[in-house]
Amino acid sequence: MFQKVKGFQDTYGDDCACWEKAESIMRDTFALFLVREIRLPILEKTAVFNRGIGQTTDIVEKEMFTFADRDRADSEGELLSLRPEGTAGTVRAYIENGLYNPPGIKKLYYSGPMFRREKPQKGRYRQFSQCGAEFIGSSSPLADADAINLLITYFDRVNISRFTHLEINSVGCPLCRPEYHSKLTGYFNKHKDGLCADCNRRLTKNPLRILDCKNENCGKIIKNASVMLDSLCPECAEHFESVKMYLDALNVKYIINPFMVRGLDYYVRTAFEVVTAELGAASAVGGGGRYDGLVETLGGPAVPGVGFAIGMDRVVALMKLSEEFKQTPPKAFIVTFGGKVKNSEIALLNRLRAQNIPVEIDYDGKGMKSQLKQADRTGAKYAVIAGEEEMNRGAVMLRNLSSSTQEEVSIADLILKIGNNHPFNFL
Ligand SMILES: [Zn+2]
Ligand SMILES: [Zn+2]
Question: Could you tell me the distance, in angstroms and rounded to a whole number, from the CA of residue 182 to the centre of ligand 1?
Fold first, then answer.
């Protein structure tokens, strides 16, 4: 017997009912905000992620599934990676397909599996599902606020807002960040000995990432570090004020977390995260930020953008905390006469399906008693007993499985009674 690869998962049964709901509400919410779907490859050239996400991020340094494309003529083969996130690929597609023409904002969303080669642990999988929206083409703080609004609207609609809260921050821009970086580097250099090995490495590469460290000793030092919010240039400060003002106008509640840095290098100005305390260490359910230089970095025109990603596995985990999800049972179960299923019974099955009524039948010709038991187990509301005599009269016995009452009805009436949303559904 084979077992699935560690860190990967199978999803089936009632769990799928929850996933279907999470995904259909996701699509409805994106449609409401006129964010259009973009369907992207799961595989990209590794360089897209190296360039797009940043060489010093954990994702690119150690978490990508990368392999050489051996179909290439040269012996080395170009490096390809399974996508670890969706933004870099979306921006690559935006540029490659010339979506910056005509100019103006493009609101795009993607959804599907992402892959990270991290050590499997609770709430973290090596294949996980994300959806995300990218608003590309506006530098207005209203774009930031409305993107956040979309994220929060979705969490409201899947009914998990009470488990989460929104944190926002500004991570500055290439004008004001260098000065803050040297201030931060100076401070952490003074406390070098108290920092963990990872942070000592970050100190030379990207001191901002130290603020993200969960190590207890590092935490004590981080607590007294200066924050970006105190070092913003006037433009960044004004942008952040406007984002807050628009969030207030949109009635979106938030907490300012000056220590929040996202795990990606491309963010400028606004960064945000939706956080939960319900899922252990994996606390972020969604998050994003502004990435004004990213399109240019990946070889496109200088077009600003802002976006977010949602961890759908965590959304589903939160939805299941307060609601039970069940797959839709059949409307009815056709109980056949027994033995080989007759053509008249198959015709009845077809007729009900043609009316969009999900109906079950026993393929194997079991006895009637066993079929009725089976009907009960499926959760069907009705058993349609296709007795030979009744069928000859163009009728069937309709048995309500919860009240155990039954009556003879004509097949035309049957469709009215068990049909989907029919006003005469009086049984
Ligand atoms: Zn700035
Ligand atoms: Zn540390």
Answer: 15
Task: Give me ligand 1 centre to Cα 175, in Å.
Answer: 5
pLDDT tens-digit profile of 170-197? 999 999 988 998 898 999 999 999 999 9
Q: Which of 169, 170, 173, 165 is nearest to 286 (CA)?
A: 165
Contact of 245 with 140, CB cutoff 8 Å: no
Residues with CB in 5 Å of ion ligand 2: 196, 199, 213, 215, 218
Asked if pLDDT for residue 426 goes beyond 50, the answer is no
- Counting ligands in written order, the one closest to the CA of 221 is 2
pLDDT score recorded for residue 71: 67
User: In angstroms, what is the span from residue 201 Cα to ligand 2's centroid?
Assistant: 9
Distance from residue 325's CA to the centre of ligand 1 (Å)? 47
Q: Which of 349, 335, 355 is nearest to 420 (CA)?
A: 355
Under a CB-based contact definition with an 8 Å cutoff, are residues 357 and 418 in contact?
yes
Render pLDDT for 101-126 as a digit per residue (tens, 0 to 9).
999 999 999 999 999 997 777 767 89
| Structural domains in the chain plus CATH codes | 14-176+232-322 (3.30.930.10), 332-418 (3.40.50.800)
pTM metric for this prediction: 0.90
195 C-alpha to ligand 1 centroid (Å)? 28
- Rounded-to-integer distance, Cα 420 and Cα 258, Å: 53
How close is the Cα of 400 to the center of ligand 2, in Å?
Answer: 64
Provide the pLDDT for residue 146: 98
**CA of 174 relative to ligand 1 center, distance in Å:** 6
Q: How far is the CA of 211 from the centre of ligand 2 (A)?
A: 8
> Counting beta carbons within 10 angstroms of the beta carbon of residue 394, is it exposed (0 to 12), middle (13 to 18) or buried (19 or more)?
exposed
Give the C-alpha distances (Å, rounded to integers) separating 378 from 33, 94, 375, 414. 38, 47, 5, 20
